[in-house]
Amino acid sequence: MSRTDVARETAGARGTAGVRATARVHARRDGRGGTALPVLDGEGPLAPRRTRSAGAEARVTLVGAMSGPLGGDRLTVEADVGEGARLRVGSAAATIALPGQTKDEARYDVRLTVADGGELYWLPEQLIAARGSDLYVTTRADLAAGARLVLREEQVLGRAGEEPGRLTSRLTVRSAGRCVLDQELACGPGAPGGWDGPAVLAGQRAVGQVVVVCPEFAERPPSARTAGEGAAVLPLAGPAVLVTAVAPDALLLRRLLDEALAGLDRD
């Protein structure tokens, strides 16, 4: 069955209750200096595909097999990186949250696990909250003491010239059983007042963050500082640092985050 056929079948079954789908990626050392993917599967709109590896690192691209998430959908992505394995995950295009046949919110849950000595780069493209959508995103990363993580989130409120949908996102990162970050941001219609004020987005329509967890930061954490117009670097209570940025559009947001990350390499 082709990918188009799968998407058509799933779309036909979507109905008013929405889609329930899960994608799973497991990365393990292959014993030859590289990384194997013993589990790589997805359902419905979630289609993980292995792409060309680089050295010891396995690479996976998440491909959207159909539109979504739509109202009522429940989508889950799980990535598990074993000891000494290296995995980089990206996406083929931006994810666009859209209104569905139901007024229920959509859910998009990301669950990341990295074992001791493992390394995960989680670098999807932007998430766009289109007008009329209602999406709740949760991302949880659980890392062993010697694990490494680079996790990027970028969110855009509305397409060009469009009012935003409602978007709520929660990000939790734990290292060696200790919570180093737990934050939630709600934007758009129906969100708590002040989300568009000077203390939060200040009228901007793109917001992003990068979390870097690195064992070396326990001894030598990066310094807190601003990183250009609208970006900041903040050490966390653990071997981790948070880079946050706001911008008028996705292009400038990515540039701010990339420049701040480059500054970490020079610390």
What key attributes describe this structure?
267 residues, mainly beta, eleven-stranded mixed β-sheet, 49% strand
Question: How is this structure best summarized?
Answer:
The chain has helices spanning 3-14, 250-266, and strands at residues 20-29, 35-41, 46-54, 57-64, 74-81, 86-91, 95-97, 106-114, 119-123, 127-129, 134-143, 148-157, 166-175, 178-187, 206-213, 225-226, 231-235, 240-247. By secondary structure, it is mainly β.
Structure report:
By secondary structure, this protein is mainly beta. It is 11% helix and 49% strand. The chain has 2 helices and 18 strands. Strands 3, 4, 6, 7, 9, 10, 12, 15, 16, 17 and 18 form an 11-stranded mixed β-sheet that branches. The chain has a 7-stranded mixed β-sheet with strand order 2-1-5-8-11-13-14, with no helix packed on it. Strand 3 and strand 4 (57-64) form a beta hairpin. The model is unreliable at 1-14 (pLDDT under 50).
